[in-house]
Amino acid sequence: MAITVKDVAHAAGVATSTVSRVINDHPSISQATKKKVQKVMDELGYVPNISARNLGKRTTSAVGIILPPLDSKERLANPFFLEIIEAINGEARTHNLTTALAIAKDIDTLFENVKAMHTEKQVGGFIITYSVIDDPIIEYLRKHSIPFVLIGQPYDALSNTIYVDNDNQLLGQQATDYLIKNGHQNILFITNTTTENIFYERYFGYQKSMMMAQLNAHQSLTLNAPDDYIKFEDKIQATNTTAIIALDDIFALRIIQLVELYGYRVPDDISVISFNNSIFSTLTHPYLTTLDIETEKLGQIAMHKLANLIKGDRIEGTRFVIPHKLIERETVIAKRHASK
């Protein structure tokens, strides 16, 4: 049976309103009474309900986590978002904060959800887990001076936006450098989105690496609509591709299926490298060679910075970069050049 405020009040010999004031650290309650009530709460194992405490204070100790529109099965199942939510939740607890999710299938509904969370004072700030151009949600948060932290690089107002990110251009460059080091020259960059900043940064890194190696940087291939997949084999043949960079791990698994569908083998005929080092990277053989973006640290630092913003603490700088590392597995091998 759960311990209630009434149980604590009875055991401490005080009114329930006194217990509520102790929980909310009200200045009208003496330190002696606070210690007395706190001792009883500890002995009874009573844990204050954060939501009830917030209601009594007419403030909030919750933060909102905004996921991108979950408009596809791939995005819905992407482990990055589950991992980032878990990391944010864990860090929030260290700041005595709870979290609430803002999710929807389209941007308009998501925007309405965020507005409702703000106007109904459900949360004191937000963490946005994606970065797209002309995002109405970011515009709304800025307009109303609502504390928020972005995971990813913003498209504008970089000096006025607190954001936590990897160096995604460097990620794209290092993935390409690794393939070139293994003898690959015809390398194709494949994505399933062209609206998120993460694509542009990683693709720019690919282009930079190819140009520095004096190799031809191909136009990226977007596989999103069903008709796009028909173009896949034509692109592979036209470019004589021996290696592919996929935007993330779950998308890389789809690429590997396509490669094998058209009679190629991974990594014997075509090597594949991706990003995130999610659980999917070791669920099937061959295990994915990928770049670990330290998802847990992204979430932790974003939550820590948001807690500082909510408290009004001064934050030095706006960009906080999380390091990454290459995880060598089974989907990249050295290119075997045909003998003459």
UniProtKB/TrEMBL annotation:
Signal peptide: none annotated. The keyword Transcription applies. Residues 3-57 form the HTH lacI-type domain. GO terms for molecular function: DNA-binding transcription factor activity; transcription cis-regulatory region binding. SUPFAM superfamilies: lambda repressor-like DNA-binding domains, Periplasmic binding protein-like I. Pfam families: LacI, Peripla_BP_3. The keyword DNA-binding applies. This is LacI family DNA-binding transcriptional regulator.
